[in-house]
Amino acid sequence: MFLPEAFEAFQAGAPEGAPGVGMAEAYAPRLASDAPRVAFDAARAWCRWEEAVLQVDPRAEPSGRFEDPTFRLGFARVVTHYFRHLAWLDPPLLDRAADLAGLPVTLINSRLDLSCPLSTAWSLHRAIPGSALKIIPGSLHGTLYGPLADAIVEAGGAHADVLEGRS
């Protein structure tokens, strides 16, 4: 919706892919191809899409991580593997959210994230009794810098005792 030119280029790398999980399904065989050119071209197209989403933030500087073809291929393979399997959340986490009541759950989401919309975290927060939702104003997608990264570190520290089994 917000990056039609970037999405069009992304979809051109796997024309049979439909938006959403269908793109991961279409890219997966290309990324696993025995033909190095096919796999590396697919990884480049996938990572250009990733960077387009990240670069919406004018403060974001290209990290350079996608310049390395080995990293690019590994990253694209892992991401598509998780997307294709819906992160193994079957049944969906929202359907099981009440099971998390009483656990120290802190959800953190950027207000303007184009890739992971706030409405998803909001719905999950409303479904998990006792959860906390921290909305990061002005932030977009990505955790490489700034308030989103800080909030994740802060939440992890706040729950350190529970995570280490001390409470």
Strand content: 5-15%
Strand order of the largest sheet: 1-2
Number of helical segments with 4 or more residues: 7
Q: State the order of secondary-structure elements, H for helix, E for strand.
A: HHHHEHEHH
Structural class: mainly alpha
Fraction in helix: 40-55%
End-to-end Cα distance, whole Å, is 45 Å
Oligomer: single chain
Envelope shape: globular
Largest β sheet strand count, sense and barrel closure:
2 strands, parallel
What does this molecule look like?
The chain is mainly alpha-helical. It folds into 2 domains: 4-88, no CATH class; 93-163, no CATH class. It is built from 7 helices and 2 strands, in the order ααααβαβαα. It has helices at residues 4-12, 21-31, 36-54, 69-84, 118-127, 146-158, 160-163, and strands at residues 106-110, 132-136. Strand 1, helix 5 (118-127) and strand 2 form a beta-alpha-beta unit. The protein is globular.
State the main characteristics.
167 residues, mainly alpha, two-stranded parallel sheet, globular, AB_hydrolase_fold, Pro_iminopeptidase, protease
Fold blueprint:
Layout: H1 4-12, H2 21-31, H3 36-54, H4 69-84, E1 106-110, H5 118-127, E2 132-136, H6 146-158, H7 160-163
Parallel strand pairs: 1-2
Helix pairs in contact: 1-3, 2-3, 2-4, 3-4
In short, what is this structure?
By secondary structure, the chain is mainly alpha-helical. The protein has seven helices and two strands.
